[in-house]
Amino acid sequence: MEELSIKGVSKFYKLGNKSTFQALSDINLEFEKGELVSIIGESGSGKSTLMNIIGGLDSDFEGEIIAGGENLRELKDKGLDSYRKNKVGFVFQSFNLIPHLSILDNVTIALTLSNVNGEEKVRKATEVLSKLGLEKHLKKKPNQLSGGQKQRVAIARALINDPEIILADEPTGALDSETSFQILDILKDIADEGKLVIMVTHSEKIASISSRIVEISDGKVIRDEKSKTYQHKEVEKFISEEPKKKKSGNLSFFQAIRLSFHNMWASKTKNFLMAFGVSISLISLILMLSLGSGLTGYISGLADSYSSPEIVTISKRSEDPFSALSPGTFTDDEIAKVKDDINAHLEEKGNDFRVQNAENISYGWSQLTGFTDQAMISYTINEDGEDVEKDAKIFYVYTTPTYYTTDNLLAGEISGNNEIMLSSAILKLLGYTKYEEVIGKQVTITFNKYVRTVTISAIVDVNMFADMLIMYVDYDFLNGLVELATGEKLAPTSIFIKTDGLETTKLINDYIKTREDLTGQLEETMANMFSEMLSTFSTAMIIISVISLTVATIMILTVLYMSVSERTREIGVLKSIGARKKDIRLIFSTESFLIGLLSGIVGIILSLVVGGILTLILNALLGFAPIAFVWYYYLLALGVSVVISVLAGLYPASRASKLDPVESLRHE
Fold it and tell me: Burial level of 637, CB count in 10 A (0-12/13-18/19+)?
């Protein structure tokens, strides 16, 4: 029964000087099932070119190839892929086994491309390999086999999809004579089973065992004769008959994942180093988000803890980003103007509350003093059994805000006349370890050169400024000290308004926000200042992260591009067994997906480690660690890693899918 018909086939190659070279000239041949055909000829005669055309690897020819009733000239890419997958099997001189796959996987890969389920493909591959004497070598890699064993694996791969045509290109070229005849016996058994086997060889001796010899010279058939001594014999089929031929499927995403995992594992060191490089970018992204969120939450919480729903704090606004540390002062006229403006605003909004000087207004004062001798504290400590007088600068002086309560204290009570409250830095100065040990101690303060002995009434919770010596003092008490020292009253830096409830507080605060010359409470102002600084820091970190991620993307693209070059022959093998362009793209795309997934996982693990270490360091240095470990930051980082990896893999995957199968198989 006729299996293959070649009608008027000619092949031209374009040369660099725009001329053409004719490799085949008007080839006309017909082949039947059960034939073992040897195509012989000198190198360059055109026999391999004819083999590539018959096998559907080269579709650029003139004439017709009719195989199993299909005209290859009329088939599009999809049809040719199906033809190579199901109707033809290749056996190569150099075996073309995929080195990082086991023998079993090298054979089942053709079934993997057809999405055959795992149990079935293992059963079929094991059956074929066992009939070829390789049942003990299923888990070995190709480099653990002899040349003859490798060629048997190649034959098994060609047979696994039960094709009607087997094409063997110099199948014994890399083997010794004894092994060569063993392989030829196998090919003869395949032909006797009823398949069409076509061998390309330059050896008359090898060809002599064939049932038919076709000789080609200069692209033309010069001899076509059948052997009179060839004898067919009954043989056991290599592929068991199946009750029903299943429709061929295509490579699934999960099968592509498995193949990609094998490919990545073969270069695990390179891929892990690449993942580690990408993870560094992800660490900076996660830590930037965690630190930014932690600091923002900490500052906001700090501001909220020093506020009251019935107290409005008003300070002067300044373009100086550090104005919160050195605020301006209000004159009496400015205070009166602010009071009148607020009352007018409340009246306009239909609110009955009115700001009255004596009834609901109080004042506050604060100043950065740590770089001057304006505020000093003198204290006595015992060293080597002797009392020693020491001095220290007070970094910042506050008058106690009206909204402060014992909740703002670590120990003690709100200060009154001749009393002060200090930050926990005083413990270190006095040599104590407990807050209670400091309460009631007397120290001497010098303010604007006025000296006064006072009692420590409380330790104030100032958190991030705990290591700085900060003093809180009653406003009237401080005002008296200033008046004694200078003869003038203290000019307030803050105005406190006690309202009748949250609604009024909100109306006044909303009004303050409309004024360019005013701002809210000091803590809120400082929180805004730090938020602006944090925003600038976060922006810089985002820019660094984007640059780092861009570099990581380029690195992934470069590595995958190099991988395509390194695996060009493997791509040719996959195409020879029916892999579609989209299959090749899928394999390389899933590799980039796995690289992104691995990078993300490594990045998350390392960021947790680095974040944990950073938390310990910050807790040791500051007493708190403003780092928010938010789960969706890690999910975001994982998503970013996968996205940039997949995007980086698009071009290499596309390039791999477009490689010419014939050129790929020739690639060294």
Answer: buried
Topology match between the domains 2-250 and 308-365+494-520: no
Q: Is 218 left (phi over 0), alpha (psi -120 to 50) or beta?
A: left
The three-class DSSP label of residue 107 is: helix
Q: What angle do CA 130, 132, 134 make, to 5 degrees?
A: 55
pLDDT at 39 over 90: yes
C-alpha to C-alpha distance for 251 and 254, rounded to whole angstroms: 8
**Closest by alpha carbon to 508, among 33, 517, 499, 275?**
499
Instruction: Give pLDDT, residue 246.
Output: 47
Other Cβ atoms closer than 10 A to 20:
10
Residue closest to 49 by CA, chosen among 164, 200, 173: 200
Going from N- to C-terminal start, the domains of the chain cover: 2-250, 266-298+531-666, 308-365+494-520, 367-486
Paired tokens of 49:
């070119």
Residues 6+ apart with CB under 8 A from 245: none
Pairing mode, if any, of strands 311-316 and 518-519? antiparallel
* Separation CA 99–CA 108 (nearest Å): 14
Tokens of 210: 């064939």
* φ, ψ for residue 489, nearest 5 deg: -75, 160
Residue holding tokens 């293992």?
A: 122
Q: What percent of the chain has pLDDT over 70?
A: 92
What residues does 38 pair with on adjacent strands?
A: 199, 213
Q: Are 426 and 437 in contact (CB under 8 A)?
A: no
- Contact (Cβ atoms closer than 8 angstroms) between residue 95 and residue 154: yes
**Contacts by residues 387-394 (CB-CB < 8 Å, ≥ 24 positions apart):** 390/429, 392/429, 392/469, 393/369, 393/469, 394/369, 394/370, 394/445, 394/469, 394/470, 394/471
Report which of residues 267 and 351 the model is more confident about: 351
Helix, strand or coil, per DSSP, at residue 199: strand
Please classify residue 386 by burial: count the beta carbons closer than 10 Å to its beta carbon, then call 0-12 exposed, 13-18 middle and 19+ buried. exposed
Residue 564 contacts by C-beta under 8 Å, 6 or more apart in sequence? 571, 588, 652, 655, 656, 659
Tell me the C-alpha distance between 289 and 295, whole Å: 10
CA dihedral 524, 525, 526, 532 (to 10 degrees): 110
Asked whether residue 24 carries a pLDDT value surpassing 60, the answer given is yes
Instruction: Please count the other Cβ atoms lying within 10 Å of the Cβ belonging to residue 307.
Output: 17
Q: Are 86 and 76 in contact (CB under 8 A)?
A: no
How confident is residue 474, by pLDDT bands cut at 50, 70 and 90?
very high
The residue whose two tokens read 């049932």 is 211
The domain defined by 308-365+494-520 carries CATH number 3.30.70: yes
The CATH number of the structural domain formed by 2-250 is 3.40.50.300
Question: What is 287-299 written as a DSSP string?
Answer: HHHHHHHHHHHHH
> pLDDT digits over 142-159, tens only?
999 998 999 999 999 999
In this structure, of 295-309, 343-357, 642-656, the range with the lowest mean pLDDT score is 295-309
Nearest to residue 429, comparing CAs of 377, 369, 375? 377
Q: What is the pLDDT of residue 168?
A: 92
